[in-house]
């Protein structure tokens, strides 16, 4: 029997935290396992317990948001929590569990329980950014991620990585720690873009505009774009294009928040959307002059893939993980090169932009990985690495 771990999704639901890219990958693994006749599990205490289907899960699998009054949503969360708390059946001995997030990988007690049950944990590693770039993370996150990786390398049956860049980081860490690497698959993420909505996204959206998409955190480098927009307002005045910031506010981002809330110069040209649905994100990207991605580090770069799949140009930092699937299609600018970013933004904002048109031509050759392609690789890998039974 194949299980998908939904510990992180469960707590996202119970705490009403909006889903991120990692959660969307988790959802795709849930859908795939369910289609294969598998089951779901989540961690409670030190154990992984089976989780019965709930209305919340049905909503997630169908890509819908909760409907109804706040009271009904509270009751639904309470019902989910009660069913989960009363669950008593642990995952069976010797079963295979797909673990698509890092949420409990650093807990030695849980790994001891997993190994005592002879469970075969196949772990999805999204990145080693906290180890390689600790300056962009919360304090002590480097130490926490090192513990996660050590335990994963020692106890997991296999690892799936989202890029060769992530694979290289895993192998480098294992070599430094003198640990063996279990069977390791590189499977690029797929995309499953919904149809864009046609209703008004939010009052104040105007063309031309650019989108920056992702949780507001230091490595995403929102500060560069906000400083650039402040500079553009002095040069272009009312002709300044709009910057649409899509994503919830995260951690260690006080300077960015100060700019968002207190920089009066950019307010007429700034739109912040913290809780956009997937349909709204698609609509925003389809109408944008470009997606801007001045990130310092990425394990994959899902927003870039989604923008290119929609035919939307991208201006990005030249990160290996992004270049791995995007090649020479985007225009690249170093994350600290403000003059280059200014040049590209001004060029792309023009109605007739030779640089933008050139990328539109390059975009015609882009072929994004689909989720069926991703899981075809995973299926074959599981059969070879774990001798699991192929799906019927």
Could you characterize what this model shows?
The protein has helices at 7-15, 21-35, 55-61, 70-86, 108-116, 129-132, 141-155, 164-177, 222-236, 254-262, 278-287, 302-309, 320-326, 338-349, 354-363, 371-386, and strands at residues 2-5, 39-44, 47-50, 96-99, 120-125, 158-161, 184-186, 209-213, 242-246, 270-273, 291-293, 314-316, 331-332. The protein is an alpha/beta fold and 392 residues long. It folds into 2 domains: 2-190 and 370-386, Glycogen Phosphorylase B (Rossmann fold), CATH 3.40.50.2000; 209-363, 3-Layer(aba) Sandwich (Rossmann fold), CATH 3.40.50.2000. The strands form 3 sheets. A 7-stranded mixed sheet has the order 3-2-1-4-5-6-7, sandwiched between helices. Strands 8-9-10 form a 3-stranded parallel sheet, with helices on both faces. β11 (291-293), α12 (302-309) and β12 (314-316) form a beta-alpha-beta unit. The longest helix is centred in the first third of the chain and has 17 residues, at 70-86. Residues 63-72 and 388-392 have low confidence and may be disordered.
Secondary structure topology:
Blueprint: E1 2-5, H1 7-15, H2 21-35, E2 39-44, E3 47-50, H3 55-61, H4 70-86, E4 96-99, H5 108-116, E5 120-125, H6 129-132, H7 141-155, E6 158-161, H8 164-177, E7 184-186, E8 209-213, H9 222-236, E9 242-246, H10 254-262, E10 270-273, H11 278-287, E11 291-293, H12 302-309, E12 314-316, H13 320-326, E13 331-332, H14 338-349, H15 354-363, H16 371-386
Helix pairs in contact: 9-10
């Amino acid at each position: 029997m194949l299980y998908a771990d939904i510990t992180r999704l469960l707590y996202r639901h119970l705490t009403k935290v909006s889903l991120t890219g990692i959660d969307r990958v988790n959802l795709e693994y849930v859908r795939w396992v369910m289609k294969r006749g598998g089951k779901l599990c989540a961690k409670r205490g030190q154990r992984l317990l089976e989780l019965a289907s709930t209305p919340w899960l049905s909503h997630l699998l169908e890509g819908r948001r909760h409907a109804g009054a706040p009271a009904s949503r509270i009751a639904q969360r309470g019902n989910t929590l009660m069913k989960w708390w009363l669950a008593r059946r642990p995952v069976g001995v010797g079963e295979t569990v797909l673990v698509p997030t890092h949420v409990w990988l650093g807990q030695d007690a849980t790994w001891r329980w997993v190994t005592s049950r002879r469970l075969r944990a196949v772990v999805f590693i999204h990145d080693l950014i906290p180890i390689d770039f600790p300056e962009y993370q919360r304090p002590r996150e480097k130490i926490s991620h090192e513990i996660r990786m050590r335990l994963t390398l020692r106890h997991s049956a296999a690892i799936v990585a989202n890029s060769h860049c992530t694979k290289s980081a895993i192998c480098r860490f294992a070599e430094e720690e003198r640990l063996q690497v279990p069977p390791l698959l590189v499977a690029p993420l797929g995309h499953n873009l919904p149809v864009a909505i046609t209703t008004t996204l939010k009052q104040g959206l105007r063309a031309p505009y650019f989108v920056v998409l992702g949780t507001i955190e230091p490595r995403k480098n929102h500060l560069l774009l906000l400083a650039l927009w402040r500079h553009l307002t002095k040069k272009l005045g009312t002709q300044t294009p709009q910057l649409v910031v899509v994503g919830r506010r995260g951690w260690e981002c006080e300077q960015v928040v100060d700019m968002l809330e207190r920089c009066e110069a950019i307010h007429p040209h700034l739109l912040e959307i913290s809780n956009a649905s997937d349909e709204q994100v698609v609509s925003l990207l389809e109408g944008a002059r470009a997606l801007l991605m001045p990130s310092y580090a990425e394990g994959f770069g899902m927003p870039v893939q989604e923008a290119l799949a929609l035919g939307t140009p991208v201006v990005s930092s030249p990160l290996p993980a992004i270049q791995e699937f995007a090649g020479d299609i985007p225009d690249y600018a170093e994350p600290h090169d403000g003059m280059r970013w200014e040049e590209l933004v001004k060029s792309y904002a023009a109605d007739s932009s030779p640089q933008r048109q050139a990328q539109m031509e390059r975009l015609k050759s882009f072929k994004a990985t689909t989720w069926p392609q991703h899981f075809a690789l995973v299926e074959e890998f599981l059969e070879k690495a774990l001798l699991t039974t192929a799906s019927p």
